[in-house]
């Protein structure tokens, strides 16, 4: 028969171990892995690598690596983190996919709301509507005329089911009340590579992935998806889709940081505190602003507010996805 005093001592020892773990996090010599559920070279990967660099100092010089685990609209990488040890050494950096995966997939091996600790929103990223370099349309008016004249023949690329570019494409087709041929890729990098190579016609993607291509004139740029024009030098001349007549058309992609459910509260606080410092790092801010992204400074930096925000976004995008009938098994 177990002695109650021994049970109490055992429980105390476990709690003490968690306390030591939290106090020494991150431990010297242990690597922190940020899982990015998309391919290397894409916009989310770029944010993750910049953030990893900015997080090193506030986390005591810790070694931080990025692991690209792509596929199934980000759900494969999400599942990897959900089942990882809840010790703060495996994190997830994901975009709006956190809010769209529950509606995109009928069966998931995790629950977005309950299987993650929310660590804070990192940034907001506008989208740009761009076309292949040989597209005959030189402005938005010419583009819509070209789309109408080529009904049923227009190819619209995206970075895969549930990706930011897929969602923007769904809204664009709905706003124009026309259908285009969707061409999914395994990430944003191959999608934009084929666009530059004239293999597909159009793409709506994040400024973090398109700004340099627009600036180098490797693609044709038609509009941005924000309510107001952007101040970024390469994008400031682009009109908004709202001012071009697509009422209430607004798509802004956000990125957030997560840990497996059950990560000790002290570790969550340590990471959240470090994130707040990292988002003020001058180089990180400069990198984000150069790409048209806006670094978070509002209440969504708090874990509870981050979670509430994702819940609201899940409801919003669930309605869009349901209306489009865009599901995967």
TrEMBL record:
UniProt organism field: Alicycliphilus denitrificans (strain DSM 14773 / CIP 107495 / K601)
Keywords for this protein: Signal
Signal sequence, start to end: 1-22
Pfam families: TctC
The family this protein is said to belong to: Belongs to the UPF0065 (bug) family.
Domain of life of the organism encoding this protein: Bacteria
Protein name: Tripartite tricarboxylate transporter substrate binding protein BugD
PANTHER family found in the cross-reference section: BLR1237 PROTEIN (PTHR42928:SF5), TRICARBOXYLATE-BINDING PROTEIN (PTHR42928)
Residues forming coiled coils: none
